[in-house]
TrEMBL record:
Species annotation: Cocos nucifera
Subcellular localization: Endomembrane system
Cited Pfam families: STT3, STT3-PglB_core
Ranges of biased composition (kind: Basic and acidic residues): 444-474
Main location: membrane
Domain STT3/PglB/AglB core: 552-611, 646-706
Biological classification of the source: Eukaryota, Viridiplantae, Streptophyta, Embryophyta, Tracheophyta
Enzyme class, UniProt record, top EC level: transferase
Family: Belongs to the STT3 family.
Full protein name: dolichyl-diphosphooligosaccharide--protein glycotransferase
Length: 794
């Protein structure tokens, strides 16, 4: 009895110490999740990032200043002029109410933080909450060890950090926590059958609906899992309790069938089922007919544009350019996965395998969650955010199971190698197997084994003994479950490799956070030969609008900048990032893509006082309006048929894209299609010929203007000088008198100056081809020509 009591006390002590250590690790994970997201504040300043967060910040300011009643009834006349917007009925209030409540609580405790500061740090705070929720979810699926590992992974995974750094005050800041919490409470209810957790699950789902439009993922994923359980014969009262508070007809029908089956005889149940199925089919047919009629009356068959884009990745690019124009709605590339989840992509398959041994309701839900999130992340790069928790849970399960096998293998074999029975349990759940292993070890070796050991060397003795230990321990079972045991050296090397893999993942996450996701778009960086330059042009421009324009002035810009103009400049905008009215956006796009007179008429009809245009060519900013111009054309063309994308594409040499000058809406000789090599070679021959020959070729093609790109002054490497030899090579493939070697010697000289490119350098990149200079004229005598190059006189 004394031995049993001591064993119980030792087990209780281990459990207490393990619980305290687990709480301490969770606190460290929370601190890690919060602190790693502060790079943006440390490197720059405490500032709101991106575009949408500025609208959320403005709404939160209004809420804290005017109260919740005025917030619900707020009609904002400074957006979408002259239409306006009802804020209370068109916004997800979860984020705003959460940050507003935090601000109110802190000020009630005499901690006077500004609304902006609370908004900046909301995402890091809820990232820690999301990590703890991930621990709870994974613990319900595969235990405490897997939960701690998954929580640590989610705290630093770049795919989640990209939307939750300090200053990223968007809906996802709290929505991912609500998503994981809803899944945890659902799985907890599946495992326990508790109506209390089912009620909490419904409340968590309500919070998720208030926070983010991605709630549709939950409202579809949980019914899919319930249906999967019903189809595979895994229906139980716990499943009913888990899903009943979310109210769905099928689960109630199935529960009613199981109840009737229990109170009726088999014969009566068969008759009742026949009647019920007949009536049910008739009702279902009528409902389906009504739904089909309603769906057919909708142009999109009842689906929203974003939903159709998820089901058909090409839908938005074909029919809704306003959705396709958003960068985060584009499909991700493979490097995006490597940056976003890194080595987790290789651990996820192992986690899936672990979930099948054994397969439970909780593990089947996680497999379904991973499969659906992986598909949707492949359609829209923004939804990699939803994939991140699933990848972390699966990777946490894989790492936990792997470390369990490797450490158990070492723990079991060390006592045998020391020629003494093992002390302690194999693990916290395998006392039975430990007793069996001890019994195996207590038996004396056979005579045959003694003979072999005498004939073998000491090294072979050790190897054979290790093999014998592995075979004996592996053959033992615990409650019918085999305990996999590996050789000690293999286990030690595997642990070292997994530790190194984890270190590589940590280094990658810190690098990605510091360099890829912490730079606010409101502040730009430019690297020049003089060093790093931080540009604050956006805020300076908005400050200029606020200080130098009237309060009632209207500002037209592309929709990306609408939220920032209203929040920082406090001026009325025509369109903004809400993008709810495609016609209004197309009208601004038509003005942006029209000649000056027509654009002025459109802006005048909208009562516009100022037009904001972003140009980033001098610092290489890739997100300026020049890069967005084709999307303006495409969106405008969807409403105004006279605006056609092909009219804005022009090229001189074939690989130039589009330009925004008076050349737009002009016929081109060749373009990027490159279907007619002879036609391209003809232009190449003109580009690589002397001025007289070039003029004759262009004249035969009925050319009015020649577009030549010269980038020498700014060091642009893609100009026509750098492409000149390719013009020669392509032309030489059709016209044998043009040979590359004839050009190489002259290119080495400082006087290399191909014509007509040389004329373009002095007179501008857009020029009409001029007739050749008459022989004997002063201009001709001042210029020396060879058969292939136009050389300027020194």
């Amino acid at each position: 009895m004394t031995v049993i009591a001591e064993a119980k006390r030792a087990s209780a002590l281990r459990n207490t110490f393990g619980g305290i250590l687990g709480v301490f690790i969770l606190l460290l994970i929370g601190v890690l999740a919060f602190s790693i997201r502060l790079f943006s504040v440390i490197k720059y300043e405490s500032v709101i990032h991106e575009f949408d967060p500025y609208f959320n910040y403005r709404v939160t300011q209004y809420l804290t200043k005017n109260g919740i009643y005025d917030f619900w009834n707020w009609f904002d006349d400074r957006t979408w002029y002259p239409l306006g917007r009802v804020i209370g009925g068109t916004v997800y209030p979860g984020l705003t109410l959460t940050a507003g409540s935090m601000w109110w609580l802190l000020n009630s405790l005499n901690i006077p933080l500004s609304v902006e500061t609370v908004c900046v740090f909301t995402a890091p705070i809820f990232s820690a909450n999301a990590a703890w929720a991930t621990y709870l979810l994974t613990k319900e699926v595969k235990g405490t060890g897997a939960g701690l590992t998954a929580a640590a992974l989610l705290a630093i995974v770049p795919s989640y950090i990209s939307r939750s750094v300090a200053g990223s005050y968007d809906n996802e800041a709290v929505a991912i926590f609500a998503l994981i919490l809803t899944f945890y409470l659902y799985v907890k209810t599946l495992n326990s059958g508790s109506l209390f957790y089912a009620t909490l699950n419904a409340l968590s789902y309500f919070y998720m609906v208030c926070s983010w439009g991605g709630y549709t993922f939950i409202i579809n994923l949980i019914p899919m899992h319930v249906l999967l359980c019903i189809v595979t014969g895994r229906y139980s009262s716990r499943l009913y309790i888990a899903y009943a508070p979310l109210v769905f007809v099928i689960i109630h029908v199935v529960a009613l069938v199981y109840y009737i089956k229990g109170i009726l005889s088999p014969k009566m149940f068969k008759v009742a089922m026949t009647i019920a199925v007949t009536i049910g089919l008739a009702v279902c047919c009528a409902v389906i007919a009504i739904l089909i009629a309603l769906v057919n009356s909708s142009p999109t068959k009842g689906w929203s544009g974003r939903s159709l884009s998820l089901l058909d990745p090409t839908y938005a690019s074909k029919y809704i350019p306003i959705i396709a124009s958003v960068s985060e709605h584009q499909p991700p590339t493979w490097p995006s996965y490597f940056v976003g989840i890194n080595v987790l992509a290789f651990l996820v398959p192992a986690g899936i395998i672990a979930c099948f041994s054994p397969l439970s309701d909780a593990s089947s839900f996680m497999i379904l969650y991973l499969a659906t999130s992986a598909y949707f992340s492949g359609v829209m790069v923004r939804l990699m955010l939803v994939l991140a928790p699933a990848a972390c849970v699966m990777s946490g399960i894989a790492l936990s199971e792997a470390f369990d096998v490797f450490t158990r293998s070492i723990k079991i074999q060390v006592p045998y190698l020391l020629d003494r029975p093992p002390c302690g349990d194999i693990n916290s759940e395998s006392s039975i197997a430990q007793n069996d292993v001890s019994n195996v070890d207590s038996h004396a070796p056979t005579d045959k084994a003694e003979t072999v050991s005498k004939e073998s060397s000491r090294k072979n003795q050790k190897k054979e003994k290790e093999q014998e230990i592995v075979e004996k321990v592996t053959s033992e079972s615990q409650n019918g479950k085999r305990l996999p045991v590996l050789p000690q050296e293999v286990s030690a090397v595997a642990i070292l490799l997994l530790t190194a893999l984890g270190g590589f993942f940590v280094v990658h996450c810190v690098w990605a956070t510091a360099h890829a996701y912490s730079a606010p778009t409101i502040v730009l960086k430019s690297y020049t030969p003089d060093g790093l330059h931080v540009l604050d042009d956006f805020r300076e421009a908005y400050a200029w609008l606020r200080q130098n324009t009237d309060v009632d002035d209207k500002v037209a810009s592309w929709w990306d900048y609408g939220y920032q103009i209203t929040a920082m400049a406090n001026r009325t905008v025509i369109i903004d990032n809400n993008t709810w009215n495609n016609t209004h956006i197309a009208t601004v796009g038509a003005a942006m893509s029209s000649p000056e007179k027509a654009a002025w008429e459109i802006f005048n009809s909208l009562d516009v006082n100022y037009v904001l245009v972003v140009f980033g060519g001098l610092v290489g900013y890739p997100g300026d309006d020049i890069n967005k111009f084709l999307w303006m054309v495409r969106i405008a063309g969807g409403v105004f048929p006279h605006i056609r994308e092909q009219d804005y594409l022009v090229a001189s040499w074939w690989d130039y894209g589009y330009q925004i000058t008076a050349m737009a809406n002009r016929t081109v000789i060749i373009d990027n299609n490159t279907w007619n090599n002879t036609h391209i070679a003809t232009v190449g021959a003109a580009m690589s010929s002397p001025e007289k020959a070039a003029w004759e070729i262009f004249n035969s093609l009925d050319v009015n203007y020649v577009l030549v790109v010269f980038g020498g002054l700014v060091g642009y490497p893609g100009d026509d000088i750098n492409k000149f030899l390719w013009m020669v090579r392509i032309a030489g493939g059709v016209f044998p008198h043009i040979r590359e070697q004839d050009y190489l010697a002259a290119m080495a000289s400082a006087s290399f100056d191909p014509s007509p490119i040389s004329s373009a350098v002095s007179s501008g990149i857009l020029l009409p081809p001029t007739p050749p200079t008459p022989p004997g004229s002063p201009e001709a005598s001042a210029t020396q020509q060879n058969p292939f190059f136009y050389q300027r006189a020194s």
